[in-house]
Design brief:
Strands 3-5-4 form a three-stranded antiparallel β-sheet, covered by helices on one side. A two-stranded antiparallel ribbon has the order 1-2. The termini are far apart. It has seven helices and five strands. It is α+β, with helices and mostly antiparallel strands.
Amino acid sequence: MDICKKIKETAIQSGMWQAGFINTRDLLFYPEIREICNGNSCRNYGKTWACPPATGTIDECKKRVMQYEKMLLLSIKYDLENPFDVEGMQNAMFSFKGSVDIFDEKLKVFLLDYLLLSNEGCRKCTKCTYPDAPCRFPEYLHHSIEGYGFNIYELAKAAKIKYNNGENTICLGPDYTRKGYGKQIVKGLIEYCRNTYGAKEFIYSTRKENKASNQLANAMGFKLVSSESKIDNRDGHMYYLLTYRYTL
């Protein structure tokens, strides 16, 4: 069997929904996408061996990838109960990591050399050893694909796999940021809640350092009502949670 076909079949057997190959010579590495990681909105920057800056510079990431002729992009479709199903989104993120681990174990049986990237962060340890000591499980470490500067929407298009999967899914690639879509989404959610549940008051919370989110709240007419210090239970980081209110 052709090795590419075998790898793709193994991905599907591991629980992946779609998989498609891309020639690495066609890949683009965007410094501006890597800069999103530096903004640390996910709280993983500088906290894990799986994310920047531990993954090296974008040039080092590119050199790592370009050792190979082809890249296989993987995806899994997860259904949400509704647009507010945050728990479902988090479960999907962890579930995808589990499928990547299964795929990794199956690849090791017949493939000696490969680079396997995954979604953000790492959940192998309660607390990562970075930067004080080497990774405890380097053989199970999968770097974050976002940290390599890839535009996922662009990759999906090149791999001929779906990026937008229909109702109760939200997919925004870097090409579609800062174009007013966030405002449209919030406006749509307000209309949905008003028409479906008769809602008249809306609460909007975001971290103080998330400038784009705070600008969106102000632009939509939300009024700041409180600022509360919090501790992120993932890494012990202290942050301020700003809460806004909007009344119809």
